[in-house]
Amino acid sequence: MKGILINYEYCTGCHSCEVACRNELGLTAGEYGIKLTEVGPYEYTTPIAADTPYEWVYNPTITKACDLCEARTALGKMPSCVQACQAWCMYYGEVEDLAKKMDGKTRWALYAPLSDDARSAMVAEREALAVEAGAAGVKHVDTAAKVAGKTESYGTWVGDMELNITLRGVEKLEAFLAEFATIDLEAAKLDLEAQIISDEKATAYVLAADKAVDGAAHELGLMAIAMNYDAQGTQLGGGKAYLDKGQAVARKDVTIMF
Amino acid sequence: MADYKEWLDELNREAYHDGEWQWQEGDFTVTRTTHWSPPGCHMGCGVLLYTKDNKLVKVEGDPLNAVANGKLCMRCLTMPEAVNHPDRLKYPLRRAGERGEDKWERISWDEAYDEITEKVLKIKEEHGSETIVVVHGTGRNIGWQVPYFASACMQTPNVSTFGFTGFACYLPRMIGTSAKQGDMFIVDASQAHWDRYASDRWQVPGVILVWGNEPIKSNADGFLGHWLVQCVQMGSKVISVDPRLTWWGARAAFWLPVRPGTDAVVAMAMLNVIIGEDLYDHEFVEKWTYGFEALAERVADKTPEWAEPICDVPADRIRGAARLIATASSCACQWGLAFEQQIAALGVTESVADIMAITGNIDNPGGNALYRCAFLIEKRYGLGDEYISKETYAKKLIPQTSGINESNIVSCADTDAILAAIETGEPYPIQMFWIQSSNALSCASMDPARTRAALMKVPFIVVADPFMTPTAQAVADIVLPVAMSCERNSCRTWWTPVRTMVKVTDFYEAKSDEQICLDLGKRIMPEHWPWETDEEWANWYLTDQLTPGGTEYQRTWWDTVHEPSSPENGCYGTSCNGTAYWEWDATYDKYAKGMLRPDGQPGFNTPTGRVELWSFGFDHWGVDPLPYHIEPPESPLSTPNTFKEFPIILSGGGRSFEFFHSEHRQLPTMREFHPWPLVMVNPADCEKYGVKDGEWIWVENSRGARFKQKVKATIEVQPGRIHAEHGWWFPEQDGAEPNFYGTYDSNLNNMTEAFRTGQGGIGSAIKSMLCKIYPVQEGDVLPHDVIAEKGDFAAYEPGKPYQVVEEPVVTVIN
């Protein structure tokens, strides 16, 4: 079993592991594959047996996103964090071999993230639960699938802007179109995209009269959530307002629930 | 990494394409190169650039490059954010309104160059080329390009930083050690050896003396602080002399929390102990130093007990640290900016250099190595100044009373003399500023409002930068877009190894610093610019650079990029493509081997041939040739009345991982990790002064100058002392006057001043200012509004310092 050994006595809190990992995994702001924790600085007033009375140490913690840089190590490279660690206090290898370096002279931490087998089993289990929930028509509330029903996700482009759409409850849209529409699902999706882009706060999909069997407009209620990002992947609006400079939206992720 | 050999053995060199400079990995082209500003820093780490379709997508460190062995800071790891940033300048711009209106029109490079050329020629003819001032920032990437441009294109002797009173950055230590020893000393962390910590010539330092800097964050001047973390892992002990508790102090055998600006007192007391207890290296002192008796006499009464009430360090800690320095197997002194950023700059430089000398820690393994730039490829301030006529050169702006400037050891002009010339018109008014790699208003300039007011009197200003900075907004008439490191062909030495940079992408019309200098040089003074391309100019720099007989390097820039280095191509050891090591720097005891003096005799390159503990050079400059201390102009000792109302000592400018000086403020990841400027306040002081962790506070001095930063409650600072950050501006804010991206509002330089320096015009008291603190409240007037209305926080006379609020009662101690 492979792991990561950190001689955290020497960690300088430089953030390189955090950032190198994000680069490798493609994580976004606020997400980490490894994250620093800091203890101190504080001064012991209680007598302890130590070199100095000051406690100030960092210990990087590995998160569930870490896959031990499988793709890199397969090529003979170091995991990203180990390669970038400026304090040169991280090691990668077999857990039994790494444990031998822990000599009691300084502080060490040995991390064993999920093994491949465990990870595959976990993902398979969740997928199985989600399928079960859908097929039985019963809402099992679990972390994998909060909404029962048919979900479609796809990406497209609107000019220079990447648009990612997730539709939940597609069967409702299909039923609505079967009853009222002359256009098919693909055409309706294009129609829906245009409407959501022009009004992110829309609360219904409007089937125009000239696309309806009976020549009258019809509406299907929906809830839409849109998130906008600039070219750097920075979210626009919301809690990052100080980063908003009127950048163009480079990517829009929209989730629509019928 | 306690075992470098083991690391090397386990390194899979093939996985990192050993021997290649460029290759494909899936969709990416990967290029092995070095990074240097912009975006900023001094280090020159080896990087692997991942590009696709002319775009930089990812950066990793290069494990095969022995400078950093693939370890890389968070700034380089997120370099694509800077390189691809939507705010980057894409085209040359001309001001389309008044200065400060943020109105710009796009122009072509030809238009920009035509206008600049026309104006420069006219100014040279009507006013003289000395009326052109060339401004650079810290010498990180432009160490040779911009000085050559100033000499061989603008023909001006007036090259300088601007607003940076007292040359308060590295230069004092450089000239101080040049005078006393003939050469600079640098901590030996094996960095001159091609095989680094595995070199059998090298030994790990017995003790590392970290004084006046936090090298892990600052990595100043080609020295990577984390090299010392390796040394600690390999057994080095630590002594930390720093008002702040840092990673070093928390682990140190001795932490000396010196009162800011009193380091010379600590050093003199250490000398007292080392000499008084007979712990000094007798052999080295007798054979290789001059003036020991005079030094011993100077420090005879400077006991640790004498020192304690002045510097606030317990006597037994000074004594313990001194004994450890003298008795360790070796002592390496990692010294830093605090040495210059005090009035006693030359005094403290002398004293600490003397400690290293009398303990025999000069040019020994694991001590302080004497370095010159690899293959004598100097970084060369003053490069090309022979192209300026003697008549014009004599008009260089230097202060009247500076013996140092007259001896021309400093090739730069003096910023205060330039400021006086602008403010008074004497000896001549300035007609033009060329500003390349400097954001003076946010960073280097003391009293930035005064600097801006002065620049407004200069008729023509060009700024070259990758981003629109507050300085460009406030004063530029033309702005030129500068390329980033992955977009330039260049090379550099800083000590060793030689390093090359190779261009792999383009960004709109941005041009590299060297391309801009070359383009204008060829238009204005073609006889001094015989190169067609940046590559040809790089070749000249590597092999010629107007050195008689050329440098000791014989390869071209392209060959260095393309091929690994080895003894076969004249280099020391083997090193990866783009680096070349030099054996001279990796040799110890050069003084004994006759390697330092031009005549080849044993000894140092000084007037006496020895390390001068009593310095002829200093004496010639009119500076005390023995260690001395000067109290900061405002301090508990020198201005006790001011201290009653302003009871806190402010130091500032400590670095952080996220930023290099005033750069990186527009980058999302850097602001995610470090969103606001932080002022460190001890928890006891938070209570005493009614401020809270996370709250914005004002920091204000005796002339009413103030700035605001966010409190970080921490024991990193002692009670009675705070520490604020420098270089802050807010690119997300309005860039037009009066706000200028908020560059005045959190700027601790509001409290600094021009025209007040240490002996010889060297040193500036900016890390030890008295202040008071109180919470920011709704409706408080911001600094930029004060400056817009009154010009500055207090009135000043042209060419003169501020009136002192209180005459100092204690000044020189020697």
UniProtKB/TrEMBL annotation, chain A:
<dbReference type="InterPro" id="IPR017896">
    <property type="entry name" value="4Fe4S_Fe-S-bd"/>
</dbReference>
<feature type="domain" description="4Fe-4S ferredoxin-type">
    <location>
        <begin position="2"/>
        <end position="32"/>
    </location>
</feature>
<protein>
    <recommendedName>
        <fullName>4Fe-4S ferredoxin-type domain-containing protein</fullName>
    </recommendedName>
</protein>
UniProtKB/TrEMBL annotation, chain B:
<keyword id="KW-0479">Metal-binding</keyword>
<dbReference type="InterPro" id="IPR037949">
    <property type="entry name" value="MopB_CT_Acetylene-hydratase"/>
</dbReference>
<dbReference type="Pfam" id="PF00384">
    <property type="entry name" value="Molybdopterin"/>
</dbReference>
<keyword id="KW-0408">Iron</keyword>
<dbReference type="Pfam" id="PF01568">
    <property type="entry name" value="Molydop_binding"/>
</dbReference>
<feature type="domain" description="4Fe-4S Mo/W bis-MGD-type">
    <location>
        <begin position="28"/>
        <end position="87"/>
    </location>
</feature>
<dbReference type="InterPro" id="IPR006657">
    <property type="entry name" value="MoPterin_dinucl-bd_dom"/>
</dbReference>
<dbReference type="InterPro" id="IPR050612">
    <property type="entry name" value="Prok_Mopterin_Oxidored"/>
</dbReference>
<dbReference type="Pfam" id="PF04879">
    <property type="entry name" value="Molybdop_Fe4S4"/>
</dbReference>
<protein>
    <submittedName>
        <fullName>Molybdopterin-dependent oxidoreductase</fullName>
    </submittedName>
</protein>
<dbReference type="InterPro" id="IPR006656">
    <property type="entry name" value="Mopterin_OxRdtase"/>
</dbReference>
<keyword id="KW-0411">Iron-sulfur</keyword>
<dbReference type="InterPro" id="IPR041930">
    <property type="entry name" value="Acetylene_hydratase"/>
</dbReference>
<dbReference type="InterPro" id="IPR006963">
    <property type="entry name" value="Mopterin_OxRdtase_4Fe-4S_dom"/>
</dbReference>
<dbReference type="InterPro" id="IPR009010">
    <property type="entry name" value="Asp_de-COase-like_dom_sf"/>
</dbReference>
<comment type="similarity">
    <text>Belongs to the prokaryotic molybdopterin-containing oxidoreductase family.</text>
</comment>
